[in-house]
């Protein structure tokens, strides 16, 4: 009898040890959208296998579309600007305008009238998007709804054979990210994340410098979304954005910061995000705000979120999120390489090794400029100006009516022109049957940061493995390529 008691005692200890080392998350505070285990202190999420009818979307090309027929869903803060920008792009037909509130969709007809374009069909109501997606005269559904509706609309559109472009974040949970991936792979349609910051002029030039080897090997990057939203909270329809912040901790708006960094590091094009660790401050301003505007006593999101990410190839990324305190706007955006450095906020600047700037870092007599050799500060403005001209990205130099796209975009507007470049490149690639600059795996990887960071925070800042949304194909490509028609 004693031996049996001993046996069961040992078994109970073993089971307890297994539970502690390999715990399922499916109840309580730590519940996630997919099951996960904790193995040796690392949180690992379940990853669904690719079904037989699905194919990888890496470098996916569709048949060229002579005219891109587009329907817009969501006309709050972002949708109207997108409609207006599309009226300046050749080869576009705006066929549908949809919003829950019909008057907001109808107001966008004025952009079409001003451009001499035919009026679009208007859709409205909670499910008006379904009729738009079912329409036979639409190729692309452009989604600028509140975040909570992004995946619902996108998956419905893809299941009806439509390409989709989704505002950021494109999804809110890991499960939703897999829904986007599976729908794109199953239906063989594009799913692009509308991450405009990847087309900022500084980011594009710096990306070209990085991919040209000017910084050597990139070993570290930094990105953020630091933006005091105090003046804007009451302008989001039905208070959707504050409600989301109040209910969710974590870096829920990571894409502006992480997107350009992932492009510089060739994520899922030779490297991939391996794991992350996140932590949150307490909520002070957030709690006060939600108490005043919502009558809620708790705001789950901390005022400041900090995240560290490591890639498989040994690079690191430092991310921040803060929309609650009066910090100056910043996306940080820093690249640290073995031979150079780039910084966008709060001061734009570059530092280069002498070998890379010896042809431009000269004084009036043609001698090496001692000031340019001082790595305690940024390279002199004259040197940086010349380097920027030398390394402008091919996208910035792409001609539109004989004008480089960078200059052309600035005449249209939209966050200094980067919104227009994003839309122009989307239409250009669809019209020429080219792979898009950003694919469905970008949408999934960047958007997944919201829930992944929350899981880490709620589990005492344990490391969380980042799912491989490419399902093993992350090293099949050798770097990021921006395609152009011959």
Keywords, separated by commas or semicolons:
35% helix; Dihydrodipicolinate Reductase, domain 2; alpha/beta; six-stranded parallel β-sheet; Rossmann fold; disordered N terminus; eight-stranded mixed β-sheet
Question: Please, could you describe this protein's structure?
Answer:
This protein has 486 residues and is an alpha/beta fold. Among the domains are: 68-167, NAD(P)-binding Rossmann-like Domain (Rossmann fold, 3-Layer(aba) Sandwich); 198-395 and 432-465, Dihydrodipicolinate Reductase, domain 2 (2-Layer Sandwich), CATH 3.30.360. Helix content is 35%, strand content 18%. The protein has helices at residues 2-21, 79-86, 102-107, 109-114, 128-134, 150-159, 174-187, 201-211, 240-247, 255-264, 285-294, 354-357, 381-390, 394-397, 405-412, 418-432, 440-447, 449-458; strands at residues 36-39, 42-45, 68-73, 92-99, 121-124, 140-143, 163-166, 191-193, 218-226, 273-280, 305-311, 316-322, 334-337, 340-343, 349-352, 399-400, 403-404, 464-465. A hairpin with a 2-residue loop joins strand 1 and strand 2 (42-45). Helix 9 (240-247) crosses helix 11. The termini are far apart. Residues 1-28 have low confidence and may be disordered.
The value of Rg in angstroms is 24 Å
Largest sheet: 8 strands, mixed
The secondary structure category is alpha/beta
Count of alpha/pi helices: 18
CATH-assigned homologous superfamily of the domain at 198-395 and 432-465: Dihydrodipicolinate Reductase, domain 2
CATH top level assignment of the domain at 198-395 and 432-465: Alpha Beta
Q: What is the straight-line distance between the termini?
A: 83 Å
Count every beta strand, where a strand is a DSSP E run of 2 or more residues. 18
If you average the pLDDT, what whole number results?
A: 92
Overall geometry comes to: globular
**CATH architecture call of the domain at 198-395 and 432-465:** 2-Layer Sandwich
